[in-house]
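Appendix B. Raw example, untouched.
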Amino acid sequence: MSNRNSSNRYYTGVSLEPEIIAYLDDLAGRMGMNRSWVVNTIVYEYAQVIESRQLKPLASRTALIRS
């Protein structure tokens, strides 16, 4: 479930692995931005690359781990 506030943002709850949180926090610190900005930017830029090149999205991590 997400809630919408007056700044056109949706608040969602996601579970991230500890290594991912550590990376995001480090990256956010180096960029001088917050974790939310970093996640939004990563997803936006990934989507731009996938759509502009008409590439297949990444396989699930479970499939990658099993191979």
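End of appendix B.
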